[in-house]
């Protein structure tokens, strides 16, 4: 692993701006409002979709896996193409089209469920479409933020967007429970479809600053160009390796084995709900902290915060009291929120504007493709090695990978802070 380098294509790191709220920018305020509504809808769907599938005649947990897996498959198949499109076309229009397609997919799902016509196959195909459309949205967000804020304001902007997501993480499941009980899963999906209309309207009203798009070239060459941007910067590709370990090992250990531990040695779902709330609360705190704190050594902080997130595998499988596990999860939540906010900011400030979406697409691809593998392997590993050994092992391996990357990240300099030019 080498010292982080700046290639001849790197932009000059942008100066940090002042402390005025980024919400004063009309474009970012629209983006924030639309995403706050849409992200709450996303959290509702995470609860509503399994209930929708299980309510079908003969619906099973395997069917739930098929429907959710179709979403991930659609995303994984198209995310690199989505990154190319978002670096070539106006990003807000790419995101708007994605919102409309996803809203349509959820609206059709709602109609099928409410009319009693839904099947596992139809819901899976609609989720495949949904995931494919989302593959164009996620890479575009990273590149759009610098277009609707001043140079140097990327971190508070990212922190605010993360804050809305983390608040939705805490509030969404409770709202979803009420909606599913009151309106049914189909009604909850109909509300989610409406949130995409709101997001699309905010994007239609936006007028972001232009940027220099990637040169026109065949799709394969543009994807290859995005990969060159990744591999030419050691701090980028090494971080992606560490993130891959986190998504492939730690997250499956949390979401598959954590509830099992809560059921075996705690109070079941109530305990797991408290632990999950602890993480969400910590993530909200981390996002608030990221609004103001600009670390002098962002790469070092990024790596250390990822280490805090990696501890979750061992924490959730420990025999500690539930309240203490929830408290430790809150600490991990702070770390994870800071880690990903600093990461996104580093990409926006150090990657050429015309390549940001493609670099982001490789980031998403590493996460999406490896998580299903982790989900498939974590159960058999736990059956063979035991739940606690498997969970602790996931933490240890991820810590080892992150520790190997840490010297590279530690040498990543901060962006110089200078006064913003007068308007």
Explain what this protein looks like in three dimensions:
The structure is a single chain. This protein is mainly alpha-helical and 423 residues long. 77% of the residues lie in helices and 0% in strands. It is built from 13 helices and no strands. Helix 2 runs antiparallel to helix 12, helix 7 (234-265) runs parallel beside helix 12 and helix 9 runs antiparallel to helix 13. It starts with 25 loop residues before the first helix and ends in a 13-residue tail after the last helix. The model is unreliable at 1-10, 12-18 and 418-423 (pLDDT under 50).
Give the secondary structure arrangement, pairings included:
Blueprint: H1 26-54, H2 61-88, H3 91-115, H4 120-144, H5 154-204, H6 219-231, H7 234-265, H8 269-290, H9 298-310, H10 312-316, H11 322-350, H12 356-385, H13 387-410
Helix pairs in contact: 1-2, 1-5, 2-4, 2-6, 2-12, 3-4, 3-5, 4-12, 5-8, 5-11, 6-12, 7-9, 7-12, 7-13, 8-11, 9-11, 9-13, 12-13
User: How many angstroms does the end-to-end distance come to?
Assistant: 42 Å
Radius of gyration (CA) equals 21 Å
Structural class: mainly alpha
Order of helices and strands: HHHHHHHHHHHHH
**How many helices does DSSP assign?**
13
Question: What is the percentage of strand-forming residues?
Answer: under 5%
| C-alpha geometry | globular
**Largest sheet report:** none
- Determine the fraction of residues in helical runs and give it as a percent range: over 70%
Residue runs with pLDDT of under 50 for 5 or more positions: 1-10, 12-18, 418-423
Mean pLDDT: 88
What's the total count of β strands?
A: 0
